[in-house]
Structures are given as C-alpha cells and as structure tokens.
Amino acid sequence: MRLRLTQAAGFEVEGLPFCIDAGRIQPLGIITHAHTDHASRHESIVCTPETALLLGERWKRLTVRAIPYKQTIKLEGARVTLLPAGHILGSAMVLIETGDTRILFTGDFNTRSSPLHAPAEPVHCDVLVIESTFSRPEFVFPDVERNRQMMRAFVDAARASGYTPVLTGYAVGKAQQIVKLLAGYHETIWVHPKIDAFCDIYRRAGIDLPETRVPAAGAPSGGLVVMPPNFTRTEWRQRISRPRVCFCSGWALDRGRGSFHRSDQIIPLSDHADARGLVEFAQATCAGKVYTMHGSALELAEILRGEGIDAQPAPDHWQALRAAEAVQYSVQTLDLFDS
Ligand SMILES: [Zn+2]
Predict the structure, then answer these.
(1) Is residue 130 part of a domain?
(2) Domain count of the chain?
(3) Which of 72, 161, 165, 328 has its CB surrounded by the most CB atoms within 10 Å?
(4) Separation between Cα atoms, residue 129 and residue 133, nearest integer Å
(5) What is the model's pLDDT at position 260?
(6) Distances (CA, A) of 163 to 221, 244, 302
C-alpha cells in the first residue's frame, strides 16, 4: 500500500479513488471541515451533514453524500467512518479501513473541551496522519474558563476606558466560540454579516448560541462587537466608534509573530489541539506509523520519535508502507490483580 499528501490532491491512499481535503477539484473528495483551506468544490463530496450546511453557504448546487458521525459507509472498496474532531461545527476525522489496515486522518482537530464541541477521541489504528499546527512546546492552551475570564477582563477594561470592545476571530468556528463565551455578559453582541450567517447555521444544527445582531449603517451603540480578523482593512473599521481590538487565536503564543491584524491585545483561544494534546492523542491511538502534516510537521515527528513512536512528515510523493511500518496496533492490557 502506498500513500501521499499533496496540496492539490490532498491525502490519498493508492488504489482508493477518493482524496481527503484536496486543494483542487477532484472527482470524489472527502472534506473534513468547512474551512477554506480544506474544502474544494469537488464533483462529488463526502462530509458530515453539518459541514454540508456550512459549504452550502458558500456554494450552491453541490453533490454531497452527508454521513453522520460514527456511521460507517462503503466507499469504492474501503470502509469510511467520520468521527467528531472537536474543531468547528461538523469537523470530522476520517477513519479508513482497507484490507486489514486502519488509517486515521485527523484533519484539524481539538483534544480539549470547547464551549461548543466535545473533544476529539482517539481510536486505535495502524497508521495515523495527524495535523501538527501547534506542536511546538510553547503552545499550551488555557482551558475554557480561563479564556472566558481573559475575554471578560478585556471587555471590562475597554469599556472602562471609553472604548468599544471588538473581539476578532475567523468567521467560521472561532467567532461562534467567542459569541458563546460572552453569552449573557452584555445585552447585545454585534457581529459582521458573514459571522451572523454562520451563527444561524450553527443554530440550525442545534447549537445553542445567544442572539447576535448586525449593525445597520453607522456605529453600533453599546454592547460589544465580534468581527473577522481583517475587519480593520474594511469599511467596518470606520463604523465602530473608538474600537479596542482583541485578536483570539492560538497564534497568540507564537513568540516569532510580531503583529496580529493591528490588535491591541491577543488571547490564545484556539480550536486546535496543543502540543501536549497532539502527543497524547498519537500515543493513545497505538499507531505503528505516524505521519505529521501542516505547520510544524518536522518538529512534531521529532517529538514523537523521542517518545518512541515511529513518526515522520507525511510524504508528498507516493511512499510505500512497508509491512513492518503498518504493524497492527497493540492494545495494552492491565492486570487488575497485579500489586
Ligand atoms: Zn480548520
């Protein structure tokens, strides 16, 4: 069996006529979640029903086979199961079973609880393909309560100084987390129209979000504002009176980054696994071979090798899995009577 990961064709297993998260249109593509760097308008799409809703906001008339979480389907000779990834609404890890081999492709995933989603749970597999966005040791993300405290402290300080608090985050996923964390804290949460449209989809999918409103022409009065990170480059910057901006992103902990979309403050609110979460997840899958992808792939592979795991960055050309690499996962057993 051979596999590869490329930007254009995504993750592919040789002999299986589908790809995962391909960057270019393919005949049959599995899409792990609706973020633009993972989704293309394939001729035929497999994804969760929630991801289909989000994709439908961007593209009309898609050919989608929507598969609920944990339901296994036969797809061109393989068994495919989508598992909760805890990243954004509808995000899924993809478990492929072909022959005797189980391959788990995480896509973007989160191993911590968020205010909106349950964390991703590891499953046993032979081969793990794991994202490595925040794998460097400095990425240790706070829990939900700590994030909520930081956000509320920012809002209070901004208002006390006569500023309008503006929290920024990506329109799908992060913005809804911010809105949820600020529920009940102020009467009105004003949002960008794009964020409002995605909040509506979250509600249609059964997620409980507080009311959000889009300001008409002119600055929103009172309350607080949630915007996409790039709003300072749009006319929305002019429509908000005395904005004080807080960017919410895991990149807040990246020592190498200087500016964050001209923000006054940053809070490390992330919907990805952090460094420890990635390692613990890989260990719990008992995978005989691990491939890392995105971000700090080299670094994560090195960290995992230090933990005794056979790991390397995902190959961007066809690479054969040797029999020794695709070893069956080993389930550790505990002797309950052992003192
Ligand atoms: Zn994502």
Answers:
(1) yes
(2) 2
(3) 165
(4) 13
(5) 64
(6) 11, 6, 46
- Ligand 1 centroid, distance to 39 Cα (angstroms): 10
Query: Cα–Cα distance between 320 and 305 in angstroms, integer?
Result: 20
Tokens 């081969």: give the residue: 127
CA pair distance 165, 154, nearest whole angstrom: 8
164 in the same domain as 55: no
Render 276-310 in DSSP notation, one character per residue.
Answer: HHHHHHHHHHT-SEEEEESSSHHHHHHHHHHTT--
Q: How far is the CA of 337 from the centre of ligand 1 (A)?
A: 44
310 alpha carbon to ligand 1 midpoint, in Å?
Answer: 26
Q: What is the mean pLDDT of residues 286-297?
A: 93
pTM: 0.92
Count of alpha carbons within 13 angstroms of residue 47, beta-carbon side = 30
Q: Given the structure tokens 């001729």, which residue do they identify? A: 43
Average pLDDT, the chain: 89
3-state helix, strand, coil in the chain (%, to 5): 25, 25, 50
Q: How far is 245 from 97, CA to CA, in rounded Å?
A: 46
CATH assignment at residue 263: 3.40.50
CA of 109 to the centre of ligand 1 (A): 8
Query: What's the pLDDT at 151?
Result: 95
In angstroms, the CA 94 to CA 20 distance is 8
**Closest to 28 (Cα-Cα) out of 99, 76, 90, 78:** 76
Question: Does a structural domain hold residue 236?
Answer: yes
Which position has the token pair 């993809």? 94
Q: Are 79 and 97 in contact (CB under 8 A)?
A: yes
> Whole-angstrom Cα distance, residue 41 to residue 331?
39
User: Residue 252 and residue 207: Cα distance in Å, rounded?
Assistant: 27
- Domain coverage including residue 29: 2-138+272-320
Structural contact between residues 250 and 141, judged by C-beta atoms closer than 8 angstroms: yes
Residues in the chain: 339
Residue 75 corresponds to which tokens in the numbers above?
């797809």
